[in-house]
Amino acid sequence: MNRLFALWGTTVGKKVAMAATGIVMILFLISHMISNVLIFRNPEHLDSYAALLRSLGPALWVARAGLLACVLIHIAAAWQLTMLARRARPITYAHHEYRVATYASRTMRWGGVLLFVFIVFHILHFTTGTLLPGWQDGRVGDNVKLGFQSVPVAIFYLVAMLFLGLHFSHGIWSAFQTLGLNHPSYNRSRRLLAWGLALAVAGGLATIPAAALLGYFK
Asked: What domain range includes position 16?
């Protein structure tokens, strides 16, 4: 345990923590996207999937607690690394060379803040129903269709998915680099994998509010 705290106290340790927790969240998002697009086949498929998860009982709450812990560790590591970087360079560059840094990397911090706000909203919107009048427990498909009847909400979800894709792609790239999987011979494949997964996951999730805006669920 002392070694873990000692590792956390280093810059490398924080980057490893970000990479490890990021991979856990990536795996969750892949499964989350696959389960959510079931709504296009039949909304009741989502209800069945939700019932299957609830049947896990305490194991579901353990998984939720573990995922929440990963999110908090990821945020804490990102915040501390940001503060360390600012203390190391208190005066910003007068000229930024944006050709070196990709747009995804330049939006990681503010995009991360937006995604945190989105996660809180998403839980209160669809998981607990606090922000969704008419929410019904166990009727996931109907809740999704009801929630996206609001145009501003659907647009907010689309914007969040855009930033999720950017965060996702750069996160995968950075995670591989942090874990030592960085070599010119397969960096191109790593970049394609990062963008491919980002488009599949964020794009797949974005199809649902997009379909709602187009009147599909009516």
From this structure: 2-213
